[in-house]
Amino acid sequence: MPLPVLSLEQMRQWEKDTWASGQTEAEVIRRVGRAVANCALGLTQPSDLILILAGKGHNGDDARCARDHLPERRVDVLDVGDPQGDLPKLETLLSLKPALVIDGLFGIGLNRPLSSPWVTLIDRVNATGLKVLAVDVPSGLDITTGQPQGAAIRALVTLTVGAPKAGLLSNSAWDYVGRLEVANDVGLAPNLPQSELQWTLPQDFATFPPPRAVAGHKGTYGHLSIIAGSLGYHGAGVLTARGAQRAQPGLITLYALEPVYHVIASQLQAVMVSPWRAETKPADNRTAILMGPGLAAEDVPDQIKLLVAELWHRFAGPLIVDASALAWIPPEPPEQPGIRVITPHPGEAARMLSCQTKEVQSDRLEALRNLSRRFSNTYVVLKGHQTLIGRSTGPVFVNSSGNPHLAQGGSGDVLSGYLAGLLAQRTLQSDSLLTLRYGVWQHGASADALQNTRPNWVVEDLVSHLGVERS
Description:
This protein is an alpha/beta fold and 471 residues long. The protein has two domains: 3-194, YjeF N-terminal domain (Rossmann fold), CATH 3.40.50; 218-465, Ribokinase (UDP-N-acetylmuramoyl-L-alanine:D-glutamate ligase), CATH 3.40.1190. It is 36% helix and 15% strand. The protein is built from 15 helices and 17 strands. The strands form two sheets. It has an eleven-stranded mixed sheet, with helices on both faces. The chain has a six-stranded parallel sheet with strand order 3-2-4-5-6-7, sandwiched between helices. The mean pLDDT is 95.
């Protein structure tokens, strides 16, 4: 199940409940140390040197405990109590060029600006450009606001303990946190606090999607219609269709504008491609419709824009709206109770909310809620780092997969196609939120798998790998 995103107060109460249950701090520290070591092993190679920086508190204890679980690694531990006096020792150890620095200087209890010697020490670590694994929180980062307290460690990976803390998800914290991972099996009490924001775990999809029926046929798995692709943007139509194919709906029909019809049709085989004309309307028997990718040309007909509004009102099935078509949906409630999904990136979300992108990024949860409210409680997939999925009420889920290499043209087209291909299948429409979460997670997990094996991958590689990475 997903994990709640906690405030500092909730985390402290969870710890108190754990100690009251009879669990010992020593046992939790032992488990955290092992989790830190496992993460460090994944970031290093045999015979690599690992430098552990340990402070006076439990965060330092967690980091020190990792030492006993790092086989085939050389490990140095620097206990830092006096940052000014210990700086020469740090310089000596940094000169050895460790493959990884484990940061256990400060934990979540830091609530005041760092003194000048601490700022100097942290800045020195950052200046090396070495890989850093932060334990629970990058040292120096305020866990509530996500702001550095004068300075903060810039981590490649932050392994937070128990559950994510709200400050780690703020956009001001992203450059310090790096990739956020969670050590959730460390012996804390099972009664987790509640939160409207939920962190997705790979095991959330252990039994999803369900197995296909033995006697299933094309009709069983739906017929998706896509309206995508215009002059100068034909690739978006191709990538969207290929992303949809990876979800394996029964049939896919793509309507492309006439100037790009031939170039799109020549690149697709199993997808049925038709030229879009003014009288074109997807048949009512379609089980899902996707509109928007690659419809950015200046001469996109007004009929397409009107069709988006019409389908928003009357189509009974899932309607997924992406890219340029986001500007054409009406704020009025749909006449039919079908599933509605919008997939904006932060810039598109800002335009839809008549605000600045930085306002969206400063409070992504509120931006998602506002978008959903403005457009009749639609599902919103607010793309970007730690993509959010949810509606105006109820839980909102933070996606935990993906990496910066998804920032390539066409990546969003693949995602919208994949989501639409999943929602075209009636068996996956009953829990559309879970289906959207799964699609977003798969998209990111596929990028992570590619990055681990082929760092120069391109979006076409993402299409071929989509859906291979399973929980």
